[in-house]
Amino acid sequence: MQFVLEKRAERSNTIALVSPLIAIGLTIVTMSILFAILGKNPILALGVYFIDPLTDSYSLQEIAVKATPLVMIGVGLSLCYLANVWNIGAEGQFLIGAVAGSWLAVKTQGTGAGYWVLPAMLVLSAVAGALYALIPAICKVRFGASEILTSLMLVYVADLFLDYMVRGPWRDPAGFNFPTTAEFDPVATVPVLIEGGRLHLGAIIALLVVAATTVLLGRTIKGFEIRVVGAAPRAARFGGFNSNQLILLTFAISGALAGLAGIIEVAGPVGHLQPGISPGYGFTAIIVAFLGRLNPIGILIAGLFLALTFIGGEQAQIAMKIPLDVTKVFQGLLLFYVLACDSLILYRFRLIFPSRKVSSGAA
Amino acid sequence: MGLLEAIILSVLAASTPLLLAATGELVTERAGVLNLGVEGMMIVGAACGFGGAWFTGSIIIGALCGIVAGTLLSLIFAMMTLGLAVNQVATGLALTILGIGLSGLIGAGFVGERITPAPHLYIPGLTDIPLVGRILFGEDAFIYLSLALVIGVWLFLYRTQAGLILRAAGDNHISAHALGYPVLRIRMFAVMFGGACAGLAGAYLPLAYTPFFIPGMTAGRGWIALALVVFSSWRPGRLVIGAYLFGAVTILQLHAQGLGLGIPSQFMSALPYLATVVVLVLISRARTGGSTAPAALGTVFVPDR
Amino acid sequence: MRKILIAATAVMLTAGASLFGASAADKLKVGFIYLGPVGDFGWTYQHELARQAVVKEFGDKVETTYLENVSEGPDAERSIEQLVRAGNKLIFTTSFGYMDPTLKVAKKYPNVHFEHATGFKRDKNMSIYNGRFYEGRYIQGVIAGKMSKSGVLGYIASFPIPEVIMGINATILGAQTVNPNIKVKIIWANTWFDPGKEADAAKALLDQGADVIMQHTDSPAAMQIASERGKLAFGQDSEMIKFGPKTQLTSIMDNWAPYYIDRVKAELDGKWASEDTWGGLKSKLVVMAPYTNMPDDVKKLAADTEAAIIAGKLYPFKCPVIGQDGKEVECKGGDHLADGQVLGMNFYVKGIDDAIPGK
């Protein structure tokens, strides 16, 4: 007798609705066990992680601030993943976008330039990110090279390039030779929305991106093509959809969004360019994309949720001395459970008895 | 000891964790599974390997702990991707994040402690031969083990029936299944082997390379190992060349600095990654027979009834 | 079921309230932001030791909290502000990269006091503090000049910032007093902390003929390698003799405890004011590990040099300082370089053959 995985005749809609909740439930149970092993009160710890950050305006704003780049990059990545191409280099595209936009900020520093600076920076960053993402895309389309590895390797290159620029040509002359640029002028800074907090225009842009992508995927031909190319490549070929063009397009869009997120982070919460500008947003966004099931609204929710865990994790460090690594474990587990539960949408388990009638197992 | 000999020894040591991890991943990918979680398995192997050696004073036990840790983590991956037909890319990434977090938790108590590193071989007479003596007879067991492992894998893949079946599972799982081979079980073993190697590779770092544990000490080597597998066109012989090449670039950039060559250090540090991209493009272009990826790599397989 | 839910919610809300509500009035809450893990056995470890000293000194009067592994990007500002919101009134941010985030939070909370390490921006409620580690480097240079048989020193540097450059220069100046022809090989690791890379760098330096290793990175890897090869090395930030009992000559130890205790006391007494502290051997912010593995005459020389620096009779950057280009550097501090010149140091002194990266 054995358990066997079997493809369902059609998607199970009940599971589709319920699976994220089951996944979250399983994660919470596992985390409680982990907290107990660490000697911390599980209920208290869960409260600090998930409830406390929601209880005051500052934390809520911080959640939005942290979620903004995650959602923007995640939405872009979801387009690639829907088309079954794997852009793992969002982190590098983020950094290149930040560098490109900062170039303009540094160039116009102190020259009394007008309000065109910030929009120009945003456009420049998006273009730069898109171009950088096209490198692995072209390598795949022209040469068949694995986009997973090329895009990943370029992350390291981008990181070192940023390092070089900030330590050399762009160093703040008044900065005692430390590796940062000077603070950006106000015209080159992303404006804050609410006084006293850090919630900034980037959040609005992220929401617009989510809305635009929802429309793109749900209501345009291109969106349809992207989804079909990923789900049923042969059907796509018969339909005349040019998969190469779609690979280039999705990479370019996701690169542009990552680059945009990059300059918004730099010109917003931080205010100048320095090494280490990204705590791994490009990689966390991959988790967000999957948690959101490659759906823009889902990614918005997933991004906010993951941001919540980051903020909660920091507060847990302060309030309960829980190490920050626990947050990583949590995120890894959550992704595992979501993926596992999601697989039950397409497949189910059956119990097979060797020489008896087949009986159906739990769904 | 001349500078050349010294450089070769440094390169050997630097390349060994790459070679160990990449060999395991090569087998996994040859069976048709793409496991991106190498970094996570390596770093958990590092934490457990150090812990094992620290508690018992034995390097061998430490290495075994590392192997077991990597294998257990890979089992999670196997359950998800083979048992539940989950997307391999996402699962691998989740495994990496989980592994980094777990290793930080496990290893938190070990920071600041030190152990006696793995001993180096010494055969009187042989080790003292100039130039090649230390290289061939004077290094620690891990280095020789890694080479033996690669040879063993090569023999397995190309000279045994089991290896042939494994490659078949990776190239065309549908036909293999039709022929009656247990594709899922083959893949599971391949994944576990990959995990064991990654765990061992990770354990090598605190057991022989730098005999203490620091969170994050793998520093991205797992990702380089992944690149190496592709770089080598999934062939063990080329894997050895690739691993030593990568190790050499890392070491030589440091030597270049010491010698006062004025190349920006960031450029030198970026060389291995740029080199990988270039090579990836070149080999994908060449496409000479037999150099392509296992055709079924990364695809989900659910046996039809 | 409902009862459990209500109870759980009550517990969580109480936990939340206790986090953000008024803290117990008596204890002074002091917060620390660390760049790395407390067990890094280097930079962060020394700050942590100082924090523990504060706890020991003031017992019940203070309650300390720390956040470790805080990256220097956008997350830093939030971490600092979270400490403020958790009721901490005195906050130490222990890395250069926290400078701007600390300043921003300081402007927002004028009643909270901030201490920032190794930076240069200050405010009414934000002090800066740093150690004159270059004094220790000078002494190390003297020792190295004496102990090196090959006349070549190996230097594992992190990033080409003034703090590191001044360390290299001080080392060479010290070494030149005993061996005018001393040479140094410098490898830039481009990291503060990467044991594998530091080990590789140490091997490369030793392979190329250096026989005394110094580092401006944080892990004991180089010490370990030097020990394996039977060479000599200097530790960094902490005592590293455990990793090289026959190898360590001395170590420059960051001794933050007296300063931290001082500042906490000032805060408790209500006398805290923004200051700019750059203390060295004299104020014991920098302490040398015992001089080991060297003959007695070298030990005496080292001790004498240390005493001379403490007494103000010897300045590592005493004029004339000759730059790499052979020209004398303008002397703005009387008979030694002014603090501002040292803080912004971006040139090598004569005797170093390499060029500073990025110039």
Structural class of chain B: mainly alpha
**C-alpha-based Rg of chain B, rounded:** 19 Å
Biggest protein-protein contact in the assembly:
A-B, 49 and 51 residues
Strand percent estimate of chain A: under 5%
> Helix amount of chain A, in percent?
55-70%
The number of distinct β-strands of chain B equals 0
Structural class of chain A: mainly alpha
Short structural description:
The complex is a heterotrimer of chains A (363), B (305) and C (359). By secondary structure, chain A is mainly alpha-helical. Helices cover 69% and strands 4% of the residues of chain A.
Detailed description of the structure:
The complex is a heterotrimer of chains A (363), B (305) and C (359). Chain A has 13 helices and three strands. With 363 residues, chain A is mainly alpha-helical. The relative contact order of chain A is 0.20. Chain B is an all-alpha fold and 305 residues long. Chain B has a domain at 3-116 and 125-219. Chain B is built from twelve helices and no strands. Chain B has helices spanning 3-30, 38-56, 59-83, 88-107, 133-137, 141-159, 161-171, 173-178, 183-209, 221-231, 236-258, 265-286. Chain C has two domains: 24-131, Response regulator (Rossmann fold), CATH 3.40.50.2300; 133-254 and 287-343, Response regulator (Rossmann fold, 3-Layer(aba) Sandwich), CATH 3.40.50. Chain C has eleven helices and twelve strands. Chain C has helices at 2-20, 43-58, 74-85, 99-108, 133-147, 162-176, 195-207, 221-229, 257-269, 296-310, 339-343; strands at residues 28-33, 62-67, 90-93, 113-117, 126-131, 152-157, 183-188, 212-215, 232-237, 248-254, 276-279, 286-288. A six-stranded parallel β-sheet of chain C has the order 2-1-3-4-5-11, with helices on both faces. A six-stranded mixed β-sheet of chain C has the order 7-6-8-9-10-12, sandwiched between helices. In chain C, helix 6 (162-176) links the parallel strand 6 (152-157) and strand 7 (183-188). Mean pLDDT of chain C is 87; it is low at 6-11 and 13-24. Chains in contact: A-B, A-C, B-C. The A-C interface holds A 43-44, 46-48, 51-52, 55-56, 58, 62, 65-66, 163-164, 167-168, 171, 176-180, 183, 196, 198, 265, 269-272, 274, 276-279, 311, 314-315, 317-319, 323-324 and C 8, 11-13, 15-16, 19-20, 31, 65, 67-69, 71-75, 77-79, 81-83, 85-86, 96-97, 100, 108, 120, 159-162, 165, 190, 343-346, 357-359.
